[in-house]
Amino acid sequence: MVAISSWRSVPARARGYVLCVALGGAACVAPALRTDTRWSVLALLAALYAGGEHAVRRDVAARTFFPVLLAGIFLLPPAAAALVAVPGALCARVERQPRGLRRIWRAAQLALAAWASGHAYAALGGPVAASAPDFPYVLLPAAAAVLAFAGVLSVLDGGILVTAERVPARMAWRGLLPRSLAPVAVHGLAGLMMAVLWSSPYGPPAALLVLLPMGVSCWVFEQYHRERSAHQATIRALVQAVDLKDRYTRGHSERVGRASVLIARELGMDDERVEVLRFAGILHDVGKLGVPTRLLRKDGPLTAQERRVIELHPEYGHEMVRGIGFLGEARAAILHHHERIDGSGYPYGLTGTHIPESARVVAVADAFDAMTSTRSYRRARPVPAALAELERCAGAQFDAAMVGALVRALDRYGWDSEVTAGDGGAEVAPEGLPAAVGHEVPGAVPDHAPQALADLPPTYRPARR
């Protein structure tokens, strides 16, 4: 019953897309069952890949054991090479539901990629079993095989983003090929080395030595993955703690993080800083944990003394995250996201560029989401009206460059507020703006969005118009 419900949780068009890819993968491997296949080579390569899939996390195995798949491309005909990954992918460890659908997807995706890669290799005259005498002539066919392998993976991953994650088609494939090409190229070189050693007098045992450095790579990536998971768990716990205290603006923190990413990318920040800005947006109001619950849930206006208590939350938040090293400059954004360009903000009344850049980004993202989210006492403003208000206040309350970046980003990608109305509560509106741009209390990071079956590395997924 659980398995059936988890399958139904995947959009119908995504299930249909996976089915089509699976049928394509089956058509690719079928010829290997009808021709004279080098079953001993295929079986050993398939066992190596299956062992890797079973031994470590699936996303780690994919990055570590691609050389085995690519070695199969250089040693076997395309249909047989497509079959190498299938047993391992179908019996791999999968952590998220629906496990069966994810296994089928992965097996079909790798089969199609290997099949296309094998045909690209053969089309440029690549030998069926690459060996040392084939150098340097084998390098061009091998490069074509690597490009085809990465290209097919990127095309299929983009399709799953469109069908399962509802990413706009104009954005789904952006950046996928460049991100996958470099690692696949490295794995292709290792796979070619495996194939050459396999065909040498030393045979398969020598080829297996190539996997030793890949094993080290596996361990390093596993440590990175665990550290990143710990970071995400820390952030989720902090935001959910605030949500338990006041559910009034559930989802606000995640949306502020998303808007911060839009601004950061538009400003040309590198991926590491973009990730930090996402953390900053999600955690910007974590200091509300130090504010008495009765004030956060108060109906009616706040007194001057109550307002001063709530305005302490940036400092509370900064103290809470002071020892979390991976947050980096996000800590400054948490402390200063209510500073104003003209110096009338809090807690320290900083002006202009004395306000940290991260805080200027989050301030704009925070105000934008406040205006475009529905509350119990008023409807959400349309995005154009919210942007017009931000532009009106640019240079006084907000950094004009950050406002301009958000305007350009939303014009390109659009915005989906995914608003969740609250059940009432106090809101502190900064002077100079209507209550719609007031202070918000963050909610838990939402889990309801479907996760891409591709299990891609964390990337920004643009909102729909």
Automatic annotation (TrEMBL):
Residues 227-422 form the HD-GYP domain. Pfam families: HD_5. InterPro entries: Cyclic_di-GMP/3'3'-cGAMP_PDE (IPR052020), HD/PDEase_dom (IPR003607), HD_domain (IPR006674), HD_GYP_dom (IPR037522), HDIG_dom (IPR006675). The chain crosses the membrane at residues 65-92, 104-122, 142-164, 176-198, 204-221. SUPFAM superfamilies: HD-domain/PDEase-like. PANTHER family: CYCLIC DI-GMP PHOSPHODIESTERASE TM_0186-RELATED, LIPOPROTEIN. NCBIfam families: HDIG (TIGR00277). It comes from Streptomyces lasiicapitis. Keywords: Membrane, Transmembrane, Transmembrane helix. Residues 249-371 form the HD domain. It comes from the Bacteria. This is Metal-dependent phosphohydrolase. Residues 437-465 are annotated as: Disordered. CDD domains: HDc.
